[in-house]
Amino acid sequence: xxxxxxxxxxxxxxxxxxxxxxxxxxxxxxxxxxxxxxxxxxxxxxxxxxxxxxxxxxxxxxxxxxxxxxxxxxxxxxxxx
Length: 81
Description:
Number of strands: 0
Number of helices: 4
Oligomer: single chain
């Protein structure tokens, strides 16, 4: 359990899956895919980074505002039904 918990913490902290696979000693990266699911917190952080004002892709661009108030899309992004 300790090994899996540590691997999940490393992955959630940003360790690339390939490096995590090597760290765990997996011969096949497919074995490491069990750690690669994105939980709600990871999705929330990704959405915050993608929509933050400090993101250079968002400078002077109002194209993302069309979905900002769309509850259905927000629920899908968070994996909610």
